[in-house]
Design a protein that fits this description.
The complex is a heterodimer of chains A (about 270) and B (about 210). Chain A is α/β, with parallel strands linked by helices. Chain A contains twelve helices and six strands. Chain B is an all-alpha fold and about 210 residues long. Chain B has a domain of about 70 residues. In chain B, about 80% of the residues lie in helices and about 0% in strands. The two termini of chain B are about 15 Å apart. Classes of the chains: A alpha/beta (about 270), B mainly alpha (about 210). Chains A and B meet through helix 2, helix 5, helix 6, helix 10 and helix 11 of A and helix 2, helix 4, helix 5, helix 6 and helix 7 of B.
């Protein structure tokens, strides 16, 4: 027994890698949909989008690249689908240099799926450097930072943009981000221009923004893949995040089991003075 | 003069931008709008400086045949190809240009792979680091375990909702309390540092001073 405990403590990390690989692959091969409990912070975001009226316009800022797309893309898809289903429209930006082409393809994908027209139902403004400065200047006039859109169209040539000058003409701002741009949206965007703000962030970032949720500076938050799965559950469309959550479930349980086993071995050997 | 002028300009910019925040007059708004545009233009020049510095340091590495200089060639070739692809081809999805080819077939898989590997290292690190060596480390490992289980549907099923309730409490009470204390501290520090820079007491932003 003692030898087993000592072996566990010094377990080759490749065994852990192999176990984790199995935990990742098996739920992919045998997908199961476990029910996802919806948290109030996600329901709040859902209600904000659900409260949109036909013709309303929101700003969806999507700042992420291929590294975090697994967590954030399902969120963006669900939000865009929901906005279009409500008959509402959106203006979109990407303040992350590595994500622009990815975001453009995602918007195009959902617009095609819903049969929406560029310039009338949605607009993609693209990327500008220095998010804090861009966010501040968009509060005065979006044309300061974006005189043209991603496709080089002057903003005033797009029917959707004709009535949109700054945040005051939008119902709210949704930032789906894996960057520090989220802080800028809170500090320079919401605090200065006082628009309702909702966030979608990666799981590791989510804990940093609960204080803003409690203080009422943000309306709601989608945290990581779980937030995306909750939104998919509420929307009843798409199931990618829900299926991926089960993979994450198995991985989390495996990691906790490894921690427990490691501690049992640690305590058992410590008592024996090893 | 070499020192006084930057200090004076810093003070002037900081003073005007601070005052305009409290004066809701059109002329002050114009100052603010113009300064925002200037900031973005200056920002673009810093990108240029960054690229020049990157190229210079890697060329030096290649010239001196420093350790792993071969990777510097890949960096410079990658930079040139990306810029050329973006300038002379299309950057739109589905355009079929070299920029999008590189984005989809090089940047995408590299970024996703690097991030995915984290899962394996985190699993290994969690196994070795989360040990109940003391009361504090026991609290840390319990918090980590409850949050990990409470944030996934399987944990919800296993505990009939108990783990998610504990995870929510951890996120909303101790986490928020600690974060808020840190943020207030950072805020006060930033304000005092801004004041020091504005008044010319802190001059470390001027190299060599």
């Amino acid at each position: 027994m003692r030898r087993l405990m000592v072996w566990i403590l010094g377990m080759d990390r490749r065994i852990i890698f192999l176990l984790l690989a199995l935990a990742l692959v098996l739920p992919l091969l045998f997908p199961v949909k476990l029910p996802v409990r919806v948290t109030p912070e996600v329901k709040k975001v859902y209600d904000m989008v659900d409260g949109l009226q036909p013709g309303d316009v929101i700003l969806i800022d999507m700042d992420y690249g291929p590294d975090t797309m697994a967590e954030l893309e399902p969120m963006s898809y669900s939000i865009m689908r929901h906005v279009f289903d409500r008959g509402a429209r959106f203006v979109s930006t990407c303040l992350s240099a590595t994500g622009v082409s990815l975001i453009e393809s995602e918007i195009r994908h959902i617009a095609q799926e819903k049969g929406k027209t560029y310039g009338e139902d949605y607009v993609f403004l693209g990327y500008r450097p220095y998010p804090a400065s861009v966010i501040l200047s968009m509060g005065q006039n979006m044309r300061q930072s974006f005189p043209i859109d991603f496709y080089n169209n002057p903003l005033d040539s797009l029917p959707l943009m004709r009535g949109i000058r700054n945040y005051a003409d939008l119902r709210f701002v949704m930032s789906v981000s894996s960057t520090s741009g989220v802080d800028y949206w809170i500090m320079y965007g919401h605090e200065r221009y006082n628009f309702p703000l909702a966030l979608g962030v990666t799981a590791v970032m989510a804990a940093d923004y609960y204080n803003y949720l409690q203080s009422g500076q943000i309306e709601g938050i989608l945290g990581g893949l779980k937030g995306a799965a909750e939104y998919e559950t509420l929307l009843g469309q798409g199931d990618r995040a829900i299926i991926w959550m089960n993979i994450q479930s198995v991985c989390h349980v495996l990691i906790v089991a490894l921690i427990v086993v490691g501690n049992i071995a640690y305590l058992a050997t410590r008592k024996r003075g090893v | 003069m070499k020192r006084q002028l930057p200090v004076f300009l810093t003070f002037l910019c900081a003073f005007v931008l601070t005052v305009q925040f409290f004066v809701p007059h059109r002329s002050f708004e114009q100052v603010y709008e113009v300064s925002n545009i200037w900031l973005q233009i200056l920002g673009v020049f810093t990108i240029l400086i960054g690229i020049m510095s990157l190229v210079e340091s890697h060329l030096q590495k290649i010239r001196r045949r420093q350790a792993q200089w071969q990777y510097s060639i890949i960096t410079i070739v990658g930079l040139v190809l990306t810029v050329a692809g973006g300038l002379f081809g299309s950057v739109e999805a589905g355009s079929g240009g070299i920029f999008m080819w590189m984005y989809n077939n090089v940047l995408n898989p590299i970024s996703a792979t690097m991030f995915s590997l984290l899962a394996f290292f985190i699993a290994s690190a969690a196994f070795r680091a989360f040990r109940a060596r003391s009361a504090m480390s026991t609290i840390l490992l319990l918090a980590a375990a409850f949050v990990m289980l409470g944030r996934v549907p399987l944990g919800d099923r296993m505990s009939a909702g108990l783990f998610p309730a504990i995870a929510d409490w951890l996120l909303n009470v101790p986490n928020v309390a600690a974060k808020r204390a840190i943020l207030i501290g950072i805020g006060l520090g930033e304000a005092s540092m801004a004041l020091r820079v504005m008044l010319g007491i802190e001059r470390s932003y001027m190299a060599g001073d």
